[in-house]
User: Fold these one by one.
Assistant:
Number 1:
Amino acid sequence: MGPRLPLYHAGRARAGRHDALPEPAPDSTQPDRLELVGDPNFIGLRNFVGFFQLPASWRVLYVTLLFLLWDVVVCFGVGLAVALALNQRIRFRGFFRAAVLIPWTVTAVVAG
């Protein structure tokens, strides 16, 4: 096995001396350090016009709407089927209801 490397660089602050730590570099994402470049002006719908002039923009909208419709239909259909199935008088109905509801509630509690 090779030589052990020290955990901290020898030039770093010793225990209890936090004033020797280097200052962090200025970060442009900090709100107090943001600076505008140029004069801000309202451009209206110019970005939208530019987007719709791109050849791929209509394909992007088509795929997005297709995904939206497919997702809504599938989620609604599966949800309705599960709800109708759990409303029937079947054996272990409480277990199946809990199996469906527990992941939903745990996610809501964890996200919180």
Number 2:
Amino acid sequence: MDELIESLRASSPGRLWTRVAPQLESWNLDLPSLILRGADAVSGVLMGKRCRRWPPTAIRFVVNFFLTTFRLFFFFREANE
């Protein structure tokens, strides 16, 4: 386990974190809270776009389904003639 921690600290992100962490502590930032709020904002924007887009798509699906069913009914009914 100690080898894993040392290899992580020796990596590029680990070295960057050792330089940045003291600055973040001096600024009294709550990093997990900031990350969670950012992720929440991004997911809200993405879901907002999807929620506005799905009603027309659902309506189009229902209309196309009934048109296809109607056409197939007459296609199969008149196929024997």
Number 3:
Amino acid sequence: MALGHIRKLYAIERRIKDLRDAERHRLRQAQRLPQLEAFKAWLFADTSQGAKASATCYSLIETAKANALEPSAYLHHVLKHIAEADTVETLEALLPWNVGLEPASKTVAQYR
């Protein structure tokens, strides 16, 4: 996860390195700060409960990707149905290989 954030920061710097100072500063503010905030939130999870919540979220996202699902659509599906899951079988139905979502598309999240 940390390497992913660092890679994104370096990619931003490579894209803006040849621009004038004012333009580079403006783009840094717009593009780097959100990445740095996400990295800081990940890096400094203040409590063990916060760290566990972050790890759960990252795990769901990466599992969706590994199963060729759009992560945001999968999270939407899980959050929509998790309250109804009161047995092992209904929880297992929420696993990415059991949901009926379409494979990931590079253009649009697939909400149902």
